[in-house]
Write a structure and sequence with these properties.
- This protein has 354 residues and is an alpha/beta fold.
- The protein has 2 domains: 51-193, Beta Polymerase, domain 2 (2-Layer Sandwich); 209-352, Vaccinia Virus protein VP39 (Rossmann fold, 3-Layer(aba) Sandwich), CATH 3.40.50.150.
- The chain is 35% helix and 18% strand.
- It is built from 11 helices and 11 strands.
- Strands 7-6-5-8-9-11-10 form a 7-stranded mixed β-sheet, sandwiched between helices. It has a 4-stranded mixed β-sheet with strand order 1-2-4-3, with helices on one face.
- α10 (256-267) links the parallel β6 and β7 (275-279).
- α8 packs across α9 (236-245).
- It starts with 12 loop residues before the first helix and ends with a strand.
Length: 354
């Protein structure tokens, strides 16, 4: 059964309108109604605050690049509409300045989902049209660098290496052209085996820090629970669950770099004994002891993995996912809860097992 009409399971007409507005990214169309209620005003303020924050970051990136002597132009996008919440900004740069630009924005806290070695930068500068970087603070920011100028690679577009191919191994800059051999082999293997690389072209986008505790509080997480985060990224949700709510928390992450980062962060936590990070596949991870399974994945992956995870829940366990947009095609959630904070807005869905 597909997800019900947006907001159907919320308590009260105001919450229904809020969920619908959030999922449709149309809070500006319902502002008059929402402003009459404190919760609605908070949602509208959160959207405006986040959008203004994104625009400030975009201005700062462009300004710093120009002051360093590089050409940079802001790319107009949804963040330019202050009525919408959007965590992405865009900046266009000449592709020949990619290496210097990456170094400069790294000093501002932006990083790619893989380590950008000189060889990988060389490949991206000649084959890619854009690269996505993430900065994690109270508000998550996604910076898309658009590379202007013609692509210089001779390979057909379908064989140009992407993130998953560049992450196979490190090469010295002089051997960077060898990365061009990786994707044809990978594509051939996927066709023969019928399997797709688990981290195929996925950029990590974590739940904003300011949303994690409100989400976990909304689902009534407690010390007696065992939370398992499938696709835990850098471990922020499981660490918050253990530190702020006192429960055992387990994270499963297929990306080796992210899993290592999560393990390092968990080891530094005062609740390290209650946290476990597993480098593995979320599809086959053991979730038998979980009372709450948490998922925050790209929508296409959520649609693929959520029904499978739900089928493996133990009795009385719950599956929790959050996403601002509507999720057509998924089973009807038992409960739908809007969450609005200055750092972001989202909609929580809660399912029981099948």
């Amino acid at each position: 059964m597909e997800e019900p009409e947006i907001g159907q399971n919320c308590d009260g007409a105001v919450q229904k309108r809020l969920v619908k507005a959030i999922q449709n990214q149309s809070l500006h169309n319902t502002a008059a109604k929402l402003l009459a209620h404190p919760l609605g005003a908070a949602g509208l303020l959160a959207c405006a605050t986040i959008s203004a924050h994104m625009l400030r970051i975009q201005f700062d990136v462009v300004d710093r690049l120009r002051k360093a002597g590089f050409k940079a132009e802001p790319v107009r996008g949804p963040a330019d509409d202050s009525a919408l919440q959007y965590h992405q900004i865009g900046v266009s740069i000449p592709r020949e300045t990619l290496g210097e630009t990456l170094a400069l924005v790294a000093a501002m806290g932006f990083e790619a989902s893989i380590k950008m070695t000189p060889a990988r930068v060389k490949v991206f500068a000649s084959t890619a049209t854009q690269i996505t970087l993430i900065r994690f603070d109270a508000v998550t920011a996604r910076l898309v660098l658009r590379l202007d100028g013609p692509v210089r690679a001779r390979l057909p577009a379908r064989f140009r290496p992407g993130l998953v191919d560049l992450n196979v191994f490190d090469l010295p800059a002089a051997l960077a052209p060898l990365y061009g051999l990786v994707k044809p082999f990978r594509v051939g293997w996927e066709k023969l085996s019928g399997r797709r690389s688990p981290n195929h072209e996925i950029d990590f986008l974590g739940t904003p820090d300011g949303l994690i505790a409100p989400i976990l509080k909304a689902v009534e997480l407690g010390p007696a629970d065992v939370l398992i985060d499938l696709g835990c990224g850098d471990g922020r949700v499981v660490i918050c669950a253990a530190e702020a709510f006192g429960c055992r928390a387990i994270g499963v992450e297929h990306n080796a770099d992210l899993a290592a980062r999560a393990q390092k962060a968990a080891a530094a936590s005062p609740r390290a004994a209650q946290i476990k990070i597993i480098h593995g596949d979320a599809q086959t991870a053991d979730i038998s002891e979980a009372t709450i399974v948490f998922m925050f994945l790209p929508r296409n992956l959520l649609s693929l993995h959520l029904p499978k995870a739900r089928a493996r829940l133990r009795p009385a366990a719950r599956l929790v996912a959050h996403e601002q947009a509507a999720l057509p095609g998924l089973p009807r959630p038992k409960e739908t809860i809007p969450v609005m904070q200055p750092e972001g807005i989202t909609v929580i869905r809660i399912w029981d097992g099948v």
